[in-house]
Q: What sequence folds into this?
């Protein structure tokens, strides 16, 4: 036990005196989570401010009754309206611009459908800019409702009732979650649910590379041969490397937990979402509480730790086939591709449509549970953390057994993978 | 007693035969040198004796312990310095020696560390990180690591490889001194002067076979060379 501790101490010193480990395992989650929280808040605030101070530009080619009503409709809703000429469009710094055609009033009065062109300008495609895409449509829809209401009143009908005969509350039942949610709430959660797996993926890839480098560094710096001739049981050597990965996993988990708590705190322990509703531009901020009870945090932390540990084990297995750090990192990057596929699969396919066996295969992959951990947190399906922990433990045992056997064989020194690129050889010959 | 006994040792990597039926023995307390051209099979033989590789056929024992069946016992009494050895660059030289000493001696490690620090002769630089060492300093540290435990058998693959004359001379003195303290040495080298100076007995390997064996004086008399370099050149050419 003393011997193991001495080796582990060596691993700790080697790990934490190496800036590369610190950056990948500790700084990455500490920076990335608060950064995402900050950017999310910033995007939300920007969208709020943009809508509150929005100036709508109108090119009024109709100059008649309907276009005048439309402009007044906007102004009545405290929206700043500026009239511009068609030749100004190209030099205007607009967000939303309406082009009201010449015959708009004529069409309306003759009972024909008129056409209003709406131009929206966004700086770049982002979640925060998505909020303005629908503004034009909503304002036109609101104006239509206003005209309908006016016509109904003129005809002596009960406009309030006829404009709002049914109240509709759309609830979406997500079979996977076993729960129903208002559709707007669901739409906003999508953003959160899709961001998190990519953050986790980035971290997993980092750890895969760090652990792959851990053994390949022993080969590259020619320390492995000496290590293998020392009077140490090979199983202890394998255990030392695994514990080295565990140290990285511990550090990464702690950094992840801190980063995640900062992230959740930045969101105000809730998930914000914006909806434009009704006739105007109302901003509704709602909160969906996320339960972060100690036992939930413990389960999440354990799940994360096990997943990282498996990743460390896989990284070590990868490094068995390589003789230097660069090759190890290259192979580790290749191994990370299937993990990316898991994310894409979860994001692009409705898992409930998959046959049972495919779902079973999908949920037997250890990374799935961490990828979906935020989703489980939101919907309160903590039992999936337990399932994930069990699946991860099974995988961990498999990886560790293979690793221990490899360490006992001389193949640890002789195995290697090489990529022979004929094209490259030809180019440089 | 035989420190090392190698009998009909064969090592194949796929179709390539690296070692082809080598047999030799090293008596306890002696310095035995394996010499041969590049790719002759010296390092493979040393690695098998050091329990790193398993023989394809044949038998190797160290102080009576079989290197395959009793590898754990062999590792307790040997110390191996590979040709291209390195050390943990984020540890200091002192931490490295301390770690190695603890692996061999447990709580009684201090004596080994003291000897290691003295053998390394790095002065205050022993407390610098290994990553900051020159090649010569690193080699001295590694040799000190290999010899500080006074193993029953020290296996040194090209101990002075890539070192300048001053460092190489110091290291040869170190090897001699440790041998006088009772450590059997098995080494390989390209440097014939070094081998002639250090070794009591020499085995010349070419193409995986042992083509000659004897003391430096015996070999010179038998193969008619003025020095070991001539003997070696004549022998390798004739093969």
A:
């Amino acid at each position: 036990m003393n011997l193991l501790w001495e080796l582990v101490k060596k691993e700790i010193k080697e790990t934490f005196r190496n800036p590369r480990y610190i950056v990948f395992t500790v700084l990455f989650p500490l920076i990335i989570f608060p950064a995402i929280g900050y950017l999310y808040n910033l995007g939300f605030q920007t969208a709020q401010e943009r809508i509150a101070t929005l100036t709508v530009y109108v090119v009024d080619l109709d100059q008649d009754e309907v276009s005048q009503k439309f402009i007044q409709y906007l102004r009545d809703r405290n929206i700043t309206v500026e009239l511009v000429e068609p030749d100004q469009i190209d030099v205007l710094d607009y967000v939303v611009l309406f082009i009201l055609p010449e015959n708009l009033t004529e069409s309306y009065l003759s009972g024909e459908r008129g056409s209003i062109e709406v131009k929206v300008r966004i700086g770049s495609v982002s979640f925060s800019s998505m909020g303005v895409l629908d503004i034009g449509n909503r304002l036109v829809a609101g104006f239509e409702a206003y005209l309908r209401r006016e016509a109904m009143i003129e005809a002596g009908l009960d406009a309030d009732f006829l404009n709002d005969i049914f109240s509709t509350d759309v609830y979406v039942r997500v079979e996977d979650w076993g729960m129903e949610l208002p559709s707007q709430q669901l739409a906003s959660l999508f953003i959160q649910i899709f961001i998190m797996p990519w953050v986790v993926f980035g971290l997993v890839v980092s750890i895969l590379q760090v652990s792959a480098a851990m053994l390949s560094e022993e080969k590259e710096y020619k320390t492995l041969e000496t290590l293998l001739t020392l009077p140490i049981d090979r199983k202890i050597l394998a255990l030392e490397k695994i514990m080295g990965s565990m140290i990285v996993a511990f550090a990464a988990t702690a950094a992840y937990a801190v980063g995640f708590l900062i992230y959740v705190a930045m969101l105000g322990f809730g998930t914000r979402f914006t909806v434009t509703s009704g006739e105007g531009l109302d901003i509704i901020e709602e909160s969906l509480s996320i339960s972060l009870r100690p036992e939930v945090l413990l389960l999440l932390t354990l799940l994360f730790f096990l997943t990282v540990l498996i990743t460390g084990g896989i990284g070590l297995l990868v490094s068995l086939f390589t003789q230097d750090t660069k090759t190890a990192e290259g192979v580790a990057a290749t191994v990370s591709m299937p993990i990316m596929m898991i994310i894409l699969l979860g994001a692009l396919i409705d898992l409930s449509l998959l046959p049972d066996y495919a779902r079973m295969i999908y949920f037997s992959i250890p990374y799935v549970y961490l990828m979906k951990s935020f989703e489980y947190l939101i919907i309160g399906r903590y039992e999936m953390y337990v399932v994930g922990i069990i699946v991860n433990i099974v995988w961990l045992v498999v990886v560790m057994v293979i690793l221990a056997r490899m360490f006992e064989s001389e193949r640890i020194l002789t195995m290697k993978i090489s990529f022979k690129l004929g094209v490259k050889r030809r180019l440089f010959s | 007693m035989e420190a090392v006994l190698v009998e009909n040792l064969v090592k194949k990597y796929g179709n390539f035969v690296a070692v082809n039926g080598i047999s030799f023995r090293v008596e306890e307390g002696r310095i035995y040198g394996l010499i041969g051209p590049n790719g002759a099979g010296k390092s493979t033989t040393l690695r098998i004796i050091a329990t790193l590789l398993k023989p394809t056929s044949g038998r190797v024992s160290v102080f009576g312990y079989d290197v395959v069946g009793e590898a754990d016992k062999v590792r307790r009494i040997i110390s191996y310095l590979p040709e291209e050895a390195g050390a943990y660059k984020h540890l200091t030289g002192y931490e490295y020696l301390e770690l190695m000493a603890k692996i061999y001696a447990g709580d009684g490690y201090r004596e080994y560390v003291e000897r290691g620090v003295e053998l390394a002769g790095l002065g205050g630089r022993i407390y610098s990180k290994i990553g900051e060492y020159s090649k010569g300093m690193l080699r001295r540290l590694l040799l000190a690591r290999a010899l500080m435990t006074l193993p029953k058998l020290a296996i040194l693959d090209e101990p002075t490889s890539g070192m300048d004359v001053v460092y190489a001379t110091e290291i040869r003195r170190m090897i001699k001194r440790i041998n006088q303290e009772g450590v059997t040495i098995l080494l390989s080298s390209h440097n014939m002067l070094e081998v002639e100076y250090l070794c009591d007995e020499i085995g010349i390997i070419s193409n995986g076979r042992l083509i000659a064996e004897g003391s430096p004086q015996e070999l010179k008399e038998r193969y008619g060379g003025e020095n070991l370099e001539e003997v070696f050149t004549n022998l390798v050419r004739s093969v």
About this structure: Chain A touches chain B through 24 residues (CB under 8 Å). The CA atoms of residues 276 and 283 of chain A lie 6 Å apart. DSSP finds 18 helices and six strands in chain A. The beta strands of chain A are 55-60, 80-83, 96-100, 117-120, 171-174, 179-182.
